[in-house]
């Protein structure tokens, strides 16, 4: 059984990263990679800042963690402020990360069902703070949001 207070505390790291991303002109999605209770890395969506098509919160976080052995990923939890897109879902599956904590899935519902089908434990915190971050961003910059999720 998971402890929602622990999940919320871990989510705070991803939220802080998301806020940094927005403050630097980007999309407010953040992530943290946690192994054995320790935050190994954080990241945020840097598509705007780095002019990159692939630096979403989760992929930036994985890059910041550096190369890790499979045994480390097997004990990891990916914490993300927003339901992961197909690309980030694929990265989670590729590295065998067994657990994902999601801040919210109201503004975007990504690959959660596929993660569950593949045996990943998915916990949605339904954080009002995460919803507010995305709702405000989408209202302010709908074109940038649509670009991020591959829509017109």
From TrEMBL:
One of its GO terms (molecular function) is diaminohydroxyphosphoribosylaminopyrimidine deaminase activity. Its main location: cytoplasm. It is found in: Cytoplasm. One of its GO terms (biological process) is cytosine metabolic process. Its cofactor is Zn(2+). The keyword Hydrolase applies. Residues 5-122 form the CMP/dCMP-type deaminase domain. It holds the Pfam family dCMP_cyt_deam_1. Pathway: Pyrimidine metabolism. GO terms for cellular component: cytoplasm. PROSITE patterns: CYT_DCMP_DEAMINASES_2. Keywords: Cytoplasm, Hydrolase, Metal-binding, Zinc. Homodimer. This is Nucleoside deaminase.
């Amino acid at each position: 059984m998971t402890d929602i207070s622990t999940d919320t505390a871990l989510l705070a790291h991803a939220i802080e990263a998301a806020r940094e991303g927005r403050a630097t002109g980007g999309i407010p999605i953040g992530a943290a990679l946690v192994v054995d209770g320790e935050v190994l890395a954080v990241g945020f969506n840097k598509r705007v800042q780095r002019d990159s098509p692939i630096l979403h919160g989760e992929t930036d976080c994985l890059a910041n963690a550096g190369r890790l052995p499979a045994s480390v990923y097997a004990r990891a939890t990916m914490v993300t402020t927003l339901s992961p897109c197909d690309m980030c879902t694929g990265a989670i599956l590729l590295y065998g990360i067994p657990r994902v904590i999601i801040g919210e899935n109201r503004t975007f519902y990504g690959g959660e069902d596929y993660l569950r089908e593949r045996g990943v434990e998915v916990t949605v915190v339904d954080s009002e703070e995460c919803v507010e971050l995305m709702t405000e961003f989408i209202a302010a910059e709908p074109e940038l949001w649509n670009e991020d999720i591959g829509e017109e």
